[in-house]
Design goal:
- This protein has a three-stranded mixed β-sheet.
- A hairpin with a 6-residue loop joins strand 2 and strand 3.
- The chain has three helices and three strands.
- It is globular, with a radius of gyration of 15 Å.
- By secondary structure, it is an alpha+beta fold.
- The N and C termini lie close together (about 5 Å).
């Protein structure tokens, strides 16, 4: 749906943050450039949930094939910007 696509899909992380959260920085998940934040020592039990790091978006020198295919959009809960193919079919 072209009208909905303009409302939910963005070419860059910064555009998604501005469109969804009203600020150029926001929580995000980049499936093209996953980063892990391992604990400094082993833990007895796993963390409750993944930690989302808020980082100022910095453009890469050249887009990867993944980045060329993926558009940024909010997750279904509108809690982060993400660039995956997992979004409601009506979008």
């Amino acid at each position: 749906n072209p009208n909905v696509e303009n409302d939910y899909f963005y070419e860059s992380l910064e555009e998604c943050c501005k469109g969804v959260f009203g600020t150029p920085e926001c929580p995000y998940i980049d499936v093209c450039n996953p980063t892990a934040n391992p604990t400094s020592s082993p833990m007895l039990s796993p963390s409750e949930s993944p930690v989302v790091t808020i980082i100022t978006p910095v453009p890469s020198p050249a887009p990867t094939i993944c980045e060329e295919r993926m558009k940024w959009h909010p997750d279904e809960k509108f809690s982060v910007c993400i660039n995956d193919f997992d979004y409601p079919p009506e979008w």
